[in-house]
UniProtKB/TrEMBL annotation:
Enzyme Commission no: 6.3.3.1
Encoding gene per record: purM
Lineage top rank: taxon: Bacteria
GO biological process: 'de novo' IMP biosynthetic process; adenine biosynthetic process
Full protein name: Phosphoribosylformylglycinamidine cyclo-ligase
Keyword Ligase in annotation: yes
Record bears the keyword Ligase: yes
Pathway linked to the protein: Purine metabolism; IMP biosynthesis via de novo pathway; 5-amino-1-(5-phospho-D-ribosyl)imidazole from N(2)-formyl-N(1)-(5-phospho-D-ribosyl)glycinamide: step 2/2
Length: 351
């Protein structure tokens, strides 16, 4: 009699998947909000939207992944931070329109379920949700042994938020004379890693060594989790109102100028002064090994992870409030009449 076929022998270990759920359960449950109905293990996540709290609520949603930063996590065998990156990429897109993140669902595809590794990834996702104030109401772990190597995995997530219809932020609120407040990034965040990894490989850089200009090993610098701005941005709206806080731009792929341009209305431009901040040492390292400045400013955030367009009368108070809660911030530019083809541009020289 031939050996019977089993799912495990085909590359899908149901027992390992169940153990991974057991290991991640406590971290997931810590993200619960009062509106969460039921617990981990159902077929769908349930969330009770308090309609009495809103007069005309709009639901907002965002989907994203982490990208090739995961390849570095695999290379360094550290998997507890990329989940924070995943959450940041979706909740900070939500808050750009003024939406409060409510809940998130994740998707983990892997070549082989290693319970401890999956638990580390999801624990990171839960940590990010806690930072953002969002509940992690469910997700999926899929074992794809025929498509991926045993140590390969990829991440994606969708988050849902809510905003009052009359409080939506965006270019419609931005006017001439507005001030652009920059919020510091924590590193490369989760963009530009295909270029970063190519430079590291071509230059033979040691991820375990500390290059000149950095104060920690390169691998640690590159795996620094993305800063999550959601709660701090929402606090600005609550403190100053939409009369003073007009728009947020999440600085992701495409860089500072192109993402800022997305919140500038027709006929106006945001001019950002490079001289108001220093180019991060890790970006300078990439440039020293062959990345042109123009490419840096397209591929990397260059030290700015989020910008806010605010009224000039509120700018100093906005900067002070952000700085007080640990988010380095500064006035980086202004909005004026458009003089060229683009809605946002950089000028000057970095400090």
């Amino acid at each position: 009699m031939s050996t019977p076929f089993t799912y495990a022998a085909s590359g899908v270990d149901i027992d390992a998947g169940e153990r991974a759920v057991t290991l991640m359960r406590a971290a997931v449950e810590r993200t619960n909000r009062p509106e969460v109905v039921g617990g981990l293990g159902g077929f769908a996540g349930l969330f009770a939207l308090d309609t009495a709290k809103y007069s005309k609520p709009l639901l907002a949603s965002s989907t994203d992944g982490v990208g090739t930063k995961i390849a570095l996590a695999r290379q360094l065998d550290r998997h507890d931070t990329v989940g924070i990156d995943l959450v940041a990429m979706v909740v900070d897109d939500l808050v750009a329109c003024g939406a409060e993140p409510l809940f998130l669902q994740d998707y983990v595809a892997c070549g082989k379920v290693v319970p401890e590794r999956i638990a580390a990834i999801v624990t990171g996702i839960a940590a990010g949700c806690t930072q953002a104030g969002a509940a992690l109401v469910g997700g999926e772990t899929a074992e794809h042994g025929d498509l991926m190597d045993a140590d390969e995995y990829d991440l994606a997530a969708t988050a849902v938020g809510v905003v009052e219809a009359d409080a939506v932020l965006g270019p419609e609120r931005v006017v001439e004379g507005d001030v652009v407040v920059a919020m510091a990034s924590s590193g490369f965040h989760s963009n530009g890693y295909s270029l970063v990894r190519r430079v590291v490989s071509a230059a033979g850089l040691d991820l375990h060594a500390t290059p000149a200009g950095l104060d920690r090993p390169l691998g640690e610098e590159l795996l620094e989790p993305t800063r999550i701005y959601a709660r701090d941005c929402l606090a600005l709206v609550e403190a100053f109102g939409v009369g003073d806080v007009h728009a947020f731009a999440h600085i992701t792929g495409g860089g500072l100028a192109s993402n800022t341009a997305r919140v500038v209305p027709e006929g106006l431009e945001a001019v950002l002064d490079r001289g108001t901040w220093a180019l991060p040492a890790a970006v300078r390292l990439m440039e020293e090994h062959g990345v042109p400045r123009e490419e840096s400013e397209r591929a990397f955030n260059c030290g700015v992870g989020m910008v806010a367009a605010v009224s000039p009368s509120a700018a100093d108070a906005v900067v002070a409030r952000l700085s007080a809660v640990g988010v380095p911030a500064w006035v980086a530019g202004t909005v004026g009449q458009r003089t060229g083809e683009t809605a946002a541009r950089l000028e000057g020289t970095y400090r």
